[in-house]
Amino acid sequence: MKKVLVTGSVGQIGSELTVALRKKLGEGNVVASDIRMPTDTVLRDSGPFEILDCLDTNHITRVMQIHECDTIFHLAAILSAIGESKPALSWQVNMNGLYNFLEAARQYKCALFFPSSIGAFGPSTPPDNTPQDTIQRPDTIYGVTKVAGELLCDYYHKRFGLDTRGVRFPGLISYETEPGGGTTDYAVDIYRKALKYKKYKCYLRKDTAIDMMYMPDAVRSMIMLMEADPNKLIHRNAFNICAMSFTPDEIAAEIKKHIPEFEITYEVDPVRQAIADSWPNSMDDTSAQQEWGWEATYDLATMTVDMLEQLKIKLATPDSQKRV
What we know:
Layout: E1 4-7, H1 12-25, E2 30-34, H2 41-45, E3 49-51, H3 57-67, E4 71-74, H4 80-85, H5 87-108, E5 111-113, E6 116-117, H6 141-160, E7 164-165, E8 167-169, E9 171-173, H7 186-197, E10 199-202, E11 210-214, H8 215-227, E12 239-240, E13 244-246, H9 248-256, E14 263-266, H10 270-277, H11 286-292, H12 300-314, H13 318-323
Parallel strand pairs: 1-2, 1-4, 2-3, 4-5, 5-7, 6-8, 8-12, 9-11, 10-14
Antiparallel strand pairs: 11-13
Helix pairs in contact: 1-8, 3-5, 5-6, 7-9
């Protein structure tokens, strides 16, 4: 991994991965790309940036020829909640976009990272300590595209020898970017509202347990996997990884330790609740531990401390105040 292309770099994961990779590989060796320009000056100005639509094969070819990357982190996607309101767009972006970049990776001999999700599981999946290899029958278009994406990446590895790798992310929590249309976004927004208003109205039931991960661990997992010895990888697409599992009530209780006056109320959104109910309560990530040494560093308590500290700084800026 010497020169990298990141698609969807303006999104929640891509914005932080790009910065981390530029620190590791050098600013000129990480090409950020997205369908829209970033408003974050750090992301925009710290290295090369390309406006790139993952459905435009001619533009993909141009970018690949210009930058000669050896690794692609393909993060451009439509997330779960938005996907249910726009299923056709979700299929086009999540599947056709992945296919286009698998073909580009094959043509230009790149390794490719594809992020799957707990959304790849469904109501018939064992919900507790979900195994690495188990039934995957999701009932959302997002989940369907993630399962199909895992299989497509496996096919390209077996059929063409392409170095494809991926993880099944739990819900991701970050102070850097605002919620982007995922079912687990409440666990991002709750910290912002706690600091700003001392209250939060949650769209999930208070007892809804979902696997979660703090973004620094998520970014570290992607880099670790792409640097892992390929001879030790059995599963490739995609590894269960996890860090913590909690309910809205539990995250609210943790926040109250630091903001005693914080209050949470509930107004359940049936669509998001149904999506959350179809996902595991917790995943077994033994395979990731054994095959490439995965281990999370943040739990709910340590993440909460860092989230509140970082958001206090971030929300103090005039631009952030307007967006909250």
